[in-house]
Every structure is written in structure tokens, then in C-alpha cells.
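Posting this for the archive.
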Amino acid sequence: MLGLAHRAWRLAPEAARRAAMAYTASLIAVRPGTPPALSNGAIIAGDIDGQNGIAATARMFAATLAQRGLLRGTMPLGLPSVAPAYSGTPAPGAAIISVVNAPYLPVGLARLQPRTMLRGRRIIGVWVWELPQVPKDWAIGARFVHEIWAPSRFTAEAFERIAPGRVRLVPYPLLTALPFTPEGTRASLNLPEDAFIVLTIFNLSSSCARKNPLGAIAAFKAAFGASRDTLLVLKLTGHERYQNDYKTILNAIGDAPNIRIITETFTEPALHGLMVSSNVVLSLHRAEGFGLIPATAALLGIPVIATAYSGNLDFMPPENSGLVQYNLIPVSGPDTIYQIPGATWAEPDIEHAAAWLRRLFDSPALRTSMGAAGQRHAMQQLSPARLEAALAANGIE
């Protein structure tokens, strides 16, 4: 009987399983009460040691609080498959800044022992989502936080629908890591010294349909064909778990002599080294809650071509970015978490993206000026001022 139940559970759509999990955990987890006016610093909770964007975000917030003398430790929090059980004692009076997306937060809280260990603390959720429409199970998670920090206006507007008046725009504190210290060169990365290199970076676990590497491949081929003066580098992770997506990407590449895949896991300095070894970073996403790769590239002074839609617009204005035209289309693909009634996302214009690639290929001067202007603007838009204001407003000192 249990075996049949388990198989039925595994066959259920991901969105349905996630919603059921969030609801069940919400019945067990203790909701936060009235928050204190002041908190003795903050604890960063989440997948602290993971190799994904959310884990990197948790580490960024921890580093930022540490710089300000406000970090009171970290706490593993999330699904059992992601975060180990927490066995410590939270610092007295510290707020909890949870970098765990809403559907998984009740599960993480329900795992804490004693379940009341967070009672009387201020709880803040650092969340990101990629569509204007938010799944219903996110509203369940919203019951367990006093405030939501969203990294972009696009995401903040979406969260206002489930937590009106409790959403604050707080861009990711990328400037904490400045100056970046890129490691590696074209030679050490086995990249041609004289080629025009276009770089696309993505994790297949973040949805191949949403990240849209097939669009990047199509735009590159439309721009340059099989020219050996150019090279498209696809830096991807997650191919072991998402074999079908990986095979689809390989089929799209075909026998192109100027497209290369890198699947090795890079440290952040090595990833930055790959970026600065490239001439252009390309993101033909269909939706981004923030756009960590385009933001990092902009801060490194690398010209960015990206879909003119969603979270990346906060730091990519048209005057210093290669923004690609798009049409809104219904969400489609195998990723059931995005299958929300009425949901739409962007379909970038491949020919327009190809035109941008050719334009930057033809003009080294434009690449230099666009990279410098994009860097200045990103540093202004991603300054720590909003985070500092958010900490003060929440009495975290």
C-alpha cells in the first residue's frame, strides 16, 4: 500500500506535490508572532553551502551582514534533500533572514526542534519568482514571514498580490563582493585568443525553457553561421539530472564548429574569469526574477545582450544594454511550477538578438563603451542603500 502511495505521489505534477507539501508543513510549523521592535543582528537561514543561485544569494547576504557587524551566524533551512537538520541554538534576539523560497519555508520551519525556537523573532523572507503570476502555495509561505524582500521591481509587484503591504524592494547585495577577483585566462580556459566569444551561463535545474539556451544557440547561428572567428560558450550545470534537456541542447548545436559546452563546476572567481574572457554575455531568457548572471557581467564591465523583460530591467536600461525585443506568449514546457492559469512570459526575437551580436562584433569601441556605461549604471542601481534602509526599518542593529 505504501509503495503504491509513493508511486502515486511521484507521478503527481510537481506543482501539486509542492502545494500539498507546503500546506501539510504549514499545519505543523509555528507561525511567527508579533515581531520585536529591535533585533540583535540577524541570522541568515537557507541552503548555505549549495551550488545554485539561491545558495549564492544566502552567502551574499551573510557576507554583507558580516561586513556591517550584524551577522549572528547561519542556519541550514529548507527541504531535507537540500539542507541538513539544524542542531544549534540561534543567537538570542537575532532576526532570521530566510533565503528559502515560500513553498519550502514551512517545511524547513517544521523541521526545527524545538518548533518554538523562532517564536518572538522577526522573520524576513528573501524570495525570488520569475512570473507576474504567483502560485497559490507561495501565499502559504507568506504566513510565516513578517516581511518579504524582493530583488527586483518585477518580482516585488508579483509578491504584492499575495502579501500586500509586506513587500520591500531589496536588490541582491552583489557589491559586497567587489572588487571581484576573476581567475583564469583564455589560455588556461582553452579558449581561442583571437575569437569573438559570446557566453551564456545557466543551470538546467532553473528550467531550460525559462533560461532558453536554444534561443541563444539560434541567435548565434543566425548572426555568425559557422564562422570560426566567433565562439559561443554554453556554461551549464545540471546536465546529469536533466538528460533530456541536455540532449535537446546537443541536437540544437548539431555539428556547429564554433559552439562549445562547458559542464565543469566553477568557483565564483573562476566563473568571473570566464566572463571577463568573453566579449559579450548573452541571456535570451523568457523571464528572470532578478538576473544574477547579467548583473554580475554588468558589474564586471562586460556588455550584456538580454531579453528586454522582467527583473534584469532594473539594472539594464536601453541606453547602455543590448535589450532584445520580445512577444509575450503563454507559458509552455515541461516545468509544471510555471503552469499557472493565464501565465505568460517572453519569447525573444531571434533576429533582433542576432543583429545585436553582429553589431557588437563589428564595433570593439561599442563593446568598450557599452561595458563601461553598463558597469556604472549597475553599481548605482545595485548599491547597498536599499538593504541598509531595510535593515533599519526592521530594527536590525
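DSSP finds 14 helices and 14 strands in the chain. The mean pLDDT is 92.
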